[in-house]
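Fold it.
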Amino acid sequence: MSWMLLILSISLAAFKSSLYNAYAKKEQPGIGSTFRFNAVAYGVAALIALIALLFADKSLSQPTILCALGYAVIVFLLQTVSVTAMKEGTMALTSVCVMYGMIIPSLAGPFFWKEPLGVRQIIGVVMMLVSLWLLRGKPGKSGCVVTKKWRLLAAAAFVLSGMAGVMEKVHQSTTGRAEKASFVLTACLFMLAFSVAATLIVRKNGTDGGFNRHIAAFGAVSGAAIGIYSIVNLSLAGMLDSMIYYPVANGGAMLLTVLASFVVFREPLDRYKIAGTVLGLCGMAALSIPV
């Protein structure tokens, strides 16, 4: 059951990334467009969570509310920092730094939750990290100069990405761990409120580009995926060890995204991406072997 959910999680993550890739190619969104996109996406995601709540535990405890608030703040900041970093540096390098954030919850499992850690798992994580670096493509291809500002933003994105995973694990360690749909609904409502508030602030400053059909369409479909994806991921955080779940979920999503970019968007697949794909598959195989 857990591996079926993991495959679903990876597929949804790759779908979300490919969808946003298609949206970005059409819109080239700035920070204002990103806030509007998120407002639509989290509104739809909240609706999906509300529907799921009809068939799940409807209770809402204090731990769930606090964890959902913490998760919402972290994810909102992560998206804001990531978009800013992509404009300062490159999308490829920024995406790798965000993916590398999996190190934090992966290591938190053995240290704080006493989850098993073997040599094969360590080797698997290292292989996944190298794979992610290779999957960004040929080094220096973009010709972009890495600035001090980008390094600071990338470091912040790395930490925030990792803390989002930790918050999932923290919630699944509380007395409210059965309240998965309630957690996702509450977190989405918080993020919807943050996104709307940020959109109004951007508009007040005169940097808002307006709402259009691309934001509505792509945001709605992305939101549906986010709603299902979030519930699945929260379930996996409570079912699988951190050293397996986070590297495989993040690495697998990156692998599928690269393949989708080649098949769907006809983006070039160089030897670095091919090597990264092979190494990533080997890393996932190593992580799947029980300690």
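The chain has a mean pLDDT of 86.
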